[in-house]
Amino acid sequence: MIAVLKQGTTQTQTEHLIQWLKDRNLDVHISQGKEVTILGLIGDTSRVDMELLSSLDIVESVKRVSEPFKQVNRTFHPLDTVVEAGSAKIGGGHFAMIAGPCSVESEDQIIQVASAVKDAGATILRGGAFKPRTSPYAFQGMKDEGILLLLKAKAATGLPIVTEIMNISTLDLFADVDIIQVGARNMQNFDLLKELGKTKKPILLKRGLANTLQELLMSAEYILSEGNENVILCERGIRTFETYTRNTLDLSAVSVLQDLSHLPVIVDPSHATGKARLVPPMALAATAAGADGLMIEVHNNPSCALCDGAQSLTPEQFAELNQKVQQIREVVK
Ligand code: PEP
Ligand code: MN
Questions:
Q1: Closest-approaching ligand to the CA atom of 268
Q2: CA 196–ligand 1 middle distance (angstroms)
Q3: Which of 11, 61, 86, 270 is the most interior residue, by most CB within 10 Å?
Q4: Is residue 140 a contact partner of residue 131, using CB atoms and an 8 Å limit?
Q5: How confident is the model at residue 243, as a pLDDT?
């Protein structure tokens, strides 16, 4: 349930109302816009007499939020959320260009790619240290060492870093990581989401391989409901009957998620298509659709990559793509 307060409501009046709601065992989320204040009521709202609440002098209107996702709902929080990660901002008109290899492979590799993508205009560096692989015999990532190498690349370039967590027991290793990624395979690992919700770290939450947009929003709700509002949603392609591409990019997800939620929405065309040739056109399409950012896999030598070489751009291809992305942004902003 949300209560929109009348313009001119004083701080004291607002505080009295909040206390009155809290006395009814509700949590109150305050969304303070320039002109309106919206109180989002969380908990068992059946205890609240809607008629009574609506009739209060300072209340403009009262509405039940029918969707099961509450705190991620745009009704609760009409303004775009802007997530801050080091020097980068994402959402509310701030565009994130995240680039880097699928996996951290060596110090030389990550430092080279990091400087190349920075020079080409990336705002955030990606690189997997803990890798969720379909085969237990495939390269599983450099783990702790991979994170240390990412931190070296961050120190060398100044770029904030994003890397995936697979198990909450490794959380301490992420202390200096700017954005923690929850990969597609863990989108519904609810215990992991709840623990990440207790941190203040920005979380990049990728859509599961076969999950609906509502399920993605419910997973984000797990993080927000524990107190962490710094969530970035990521469309990365879903399973369909099509096998030519690795997944099927659901571009309409960008607009749907932006309508339903205030959280920033980015697109990963690399995992969505699985083919380097298809990454630039889909990246441009996502930008034109109004995405708040992109995540692009870039490798200095894609044919020798230990993971996802076929979908990785070279730094030169990435530089060319980023110029076009910036041109598209000018047109659609
Ligand atoms: C990744 O970004 O490294 C990754 C594994 O992606 P996804 O979880 O979307 O498959
Ligand atoms: Mn990958």
A1: 1
A2: 18
A3: 270
A4: yes
A5: 97
